[in-house]
């Protein structure tokens, strides 16, 4: 600092010399390694491409195996995610105090894994005045007593007559059902006041209650005046086990009836557009099946699901806007003999049979036995189905 001052020209020359020397050194040091790295990368890429080409061309079976395993893993993951979503939603609903039936509230704290496992829960919609109908089913396609319990235990097939209570709980009508249930043990009682115009509410409550009692893969609703082949029903449902959101039935799109006083009158017809319009596609009400995720969706969202005049329309409306696969299964709506009889002889046994003109089997109590003899699959068919 105290020496002789250095001129600006000398400083410039010194800086330039240092820069030149540094550039020369850097070029000498890194030129060879870069060339080596590039060569190495090219060799690696060519090697990987050759390996992939050999694997794809030489082992097609391995490729298909990997693809199959990938699809299986995706399906398994999808089911796991659906189950977790359902448990989370149920927990939230329980914390928020959802308005469920007493049976649902009593079991709302249960984990879904603690429920009784089943393949399918079949709810037979019935009324106080339908004892003869129920007996006609017990005498034909519906197993009784020990057979019913065995079917539930060994095959995971749960079957119950579904009914609520009268407007005067504890009265004659309710006592009669209690006595019938004590004898047959095949009822599911709902916290619901029975009435023809309350079928949408009853359907909503049936699925909510069934989900709270059984952890099943499918939930089915049938009427008590149709003929059902249990083996064919279970075989049909088993084809869709990998589908998390499935809605199966005979899909239709009937007219929206705006005239008062007619059967199936729709008071909210204006919501479906101009007069003469048709409903959206939905399963006919005699029989339909839904997967576990959809039944859980009904249970979780029960307080805010709108009810139309017709029960089958209400159910279909609950799935509008959801990622749901509709399956139009025509074997669920065969006619009565000779229709179902001809199909059975041809090897196409029907799942369900009824008369469209009566929205069920006309005079079902008198005809159920003959229809069962003509169109039934055989009493042992359901036991031979592999699940």
UniProtKB/TrEMBL annotation:
InterPro entries: DUF4094, Glyco_trans_31. Its cofactor is Mn(2+). This is Hexosyltransferase. GO terms for cellular component: Golgi membrane. Residues 1-26 form the signal peptide. Pathway: Protein modification; protein glycosylation. Keywords: Glycosyltransferase, Golgi apparatus, Manganese, Membrane, Signal, Signal-anchor, Transferase, Transmembrane, Transmembrane helix. Its EC number is 2.4.1.-. It is found in: Golgi apparatus membrane. It comes from Quillaja saponaria. One of its GO terms (molecular function) is galactosyltransferase activity. It is a single-pass type II membrane protein. The keyword Cell membrane does not apply. Belongs to the glycosyltransferase 31 family. It comes from the Eukaryota. Pfam families: DUF4094, Galactosyl_T. Residues 7-94 form the DUF4094 domain.
């Amino acid at each position: 600092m105290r020496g002789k001052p250095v001129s600006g020209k000398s400083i410039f020359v010194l800086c330039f010399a240092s820069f030149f020397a540094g550039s020369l050194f850097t070029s000498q040091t890194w030129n060879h390694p870069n060339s080596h790295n590039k060569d190495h990368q090219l060799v690696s890429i060519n090697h990987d491409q050759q390996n992939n080409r050999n694997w794809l061309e030489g082992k097609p079976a391995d490729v298909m195996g990997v693809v199959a395993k990938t699809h299986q893993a995706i399906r398994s993951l999808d089911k796991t995610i659906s189950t977790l979503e359902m448990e989370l939603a149920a927990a939230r609903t329980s914390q928020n105090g959802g308005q469920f039936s007493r049976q649902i509230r009593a079991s709302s704290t249960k984990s879904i894994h603690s429920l009784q496992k089943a393949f399918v829960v079949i709810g037979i919609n019935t009324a106080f005045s339908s004892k003869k109908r129920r007996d006609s089913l017990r005498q034909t396609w519906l197993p009784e007593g020990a057979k019913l319990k065995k079917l539930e235990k060994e095959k995971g097939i749960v079957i119950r007559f579904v009914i609520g209570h009268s407007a005067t709980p504890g009265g004659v009508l309710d006592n009669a059902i209690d006595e019938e249930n004590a004898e047959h043990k095949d009822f599911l009682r709902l916290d619901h006041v029975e009435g023809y115009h309350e079928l949408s509410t009853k359907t909503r409550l049936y699925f909510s209650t069934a989900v709270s009692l059984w952890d099943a893969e499918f939930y089915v609703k049938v009427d008590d005046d149709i003929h059902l082949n249990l083996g064919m029903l279970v075989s049909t449902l088993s084809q869709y086990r990998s589908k998390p959101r499935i809605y199966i039935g005979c899909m239709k799109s009937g007219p929206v009836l705006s005239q008062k006083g007619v059967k199936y009158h729709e008071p909210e017809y204006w919501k479906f557009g101009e007069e003469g319009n048709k409903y959206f596609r939905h399963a006919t009400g005699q029989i339909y099946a839904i997967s576990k995720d959809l039944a859980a969706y009904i249970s979780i969202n029960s307080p805010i699901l709108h009810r139309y005049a017709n029960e089958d329309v209400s159910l279909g409306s609950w799935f509008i806007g959801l990622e749901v696969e509709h399956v139009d299964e025509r074997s669920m709506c065969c006619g009565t003999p000779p229709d179902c009889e001809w199909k059975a002889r041809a090897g196409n046994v029907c799942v369900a049979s009824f008369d469209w003109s009566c929205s069920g089997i006309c005079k079902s109590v008198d005809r159920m036995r003959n229809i069962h003899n003509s169109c039934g699959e055989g009493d042992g068919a359901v036991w031979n189905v592999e699940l």
